[in-house]
Design a protein that fits this description.
The chain is an all-alpha fold. It contains six helices and no strands.
Length: 190
Amino acid sequence: MSDPNGDDRRTSDESAADLGTGPNDGPTNRPEEATADIDSGTGAGDGTRAGGRDPRDEPMQVATAERRRKTSVISLLVAVLGAWVALSVFVFRTAPAPLWNDVLVGLVVFVAAGYNYYRVTNDVPISTGIASLIAVLGVWLIVSAALLGMVGGLFWSTLATGLVIAGLAGYNAYEAREARAVATETGPGA
C-alpha cells in the first residue's frame, strides 16, 4: 500500500521492484540528493558542489592565511617590545614610579600579546579586546613618559616603544575586527 501523501521512504530500486514503476515516478527520501541542491549563501550546511569545493572558499582561505601570518608576527613583535619595556628600567637608572610603571605595563603587554600570539598559532582568531587593551597600554606608555617625569634614555625608549606598541596593537585590533566581520558575513546580497 502506498502513502497517499507520496512520502515513500523506499529507495528507487525498491519502488521500481514493488510497484513496477520507474525511478522518476514519485518522491523519495534521499538526504544526500536533497542537500546537494541547497545553497543558503552562507556556505554553512550547503551540499558539495561540482569539484567538491565552494569556489568562494579559496580566496577566503588565502586572505585568512595571510591575515593570520601578519597578525602572528605582529603579536610576537609586540610581546618582545613589552618585554623590552619591562626590562629597560634595568638598563636606564630611574625613580621608583617610572620603574614600576614600565615594569607592570611591560609585563601586561608581554603577557597579553603573547596570549594573542598563542591564539593565532593555534588557529584561533586573536582577541579584539586584548589587542585593544594593548593599544591603550601603548598610548599610556606615551603619556606616562612625560607624566611621570622620565628623563634621558628611559624617556625616549618608553616614548618610542609606546608609539610602536600602540600602532601595531591598533592594527591587530583592526584586523581582528575585520576577520570577525568576514567570518560572520552572510554572503552576497545580505
